[in-house]
Design a protein that fits this description.
- The chain is mainly β.
- The protein contains no helices and 14 strands.
- The strands form seven sheets. It has a two-stranded antiparallel ribbon. Strands 2-11 form a two-stranded antiparallel sheet.
- A hairpin with an 8-residue loop joins strand 5 and strand 6.
């Protein structure tokens, strides 16, 4: 007679659930653009009693402005080149003005040349649940929110 064979089976069952709720805050990054003026050329001269363009000094709340110049060809009949470029700078916003964020919505922005704004930060009805049966329920929130739910079941037989 032979001995009965024994059966061996190791069984591991894991269930893992997770919920991640995120509320992002409001964000504004504004860079003031300054006034610039450039001029280049050849065979060009400043007209009598004049000047090339120049920037006039700004104030604590105003950007520099351009005082336009007057030019002539230096040697008549000869080739010449002339180029100028002007960028009007941003005015300076008063302290405490510029960007207002109310309930996750940007009401107004600073009036600068370069502005990056991200709004959010309102949880609202943001929610997430996972039942023991793995049923995942996520509820959208306000602006700038995200919800992630995950249920993982794993069976390992050795």
């Amino acid at each position: 007679m032979t001995a009965p064979l024994t059966a061996r089976a190791d069984l591991t069952h894991r269930m893992t659930s997770s919920t991640q709720l995120t509320v992002n805050g409001a964000y504004t990054d504004a860079s003031r653009v300054g006034s610039t003026y450039t001029v280049s050329g050849s065979n060009i001269k400043v007209a009598t009693d004049a000047h090339f363009g120049k920037l006039t000094a700004g104030t604590a709340t105003a950007a520099a402005t351009l005082d336009v110049g007057a030019y002539d060809v230096n040697t008549a009949g000869s080739a010449f080149s002339f180029s100028e470029s002007w960028t009007q700078g941003d005015v300076v916003n008063a302290i405490g003005s510029g960007a207002d964020v109310t309930t996750g919505v940007v009401a107004d922005l600073p009036a600068y040349g370069n502005v990056l704004t991200t709004s959010g930060g309102v949880a609202g009805t943001l929610a997430g649940t996972i039942t023991s049966a793995g049923v995942t329920t996520l509820t959208a929130g306000g602006a700038g929110t995200s919800a992630t739910g995950q249920f993982v079941t794993e069976i390992v037989i050795d």
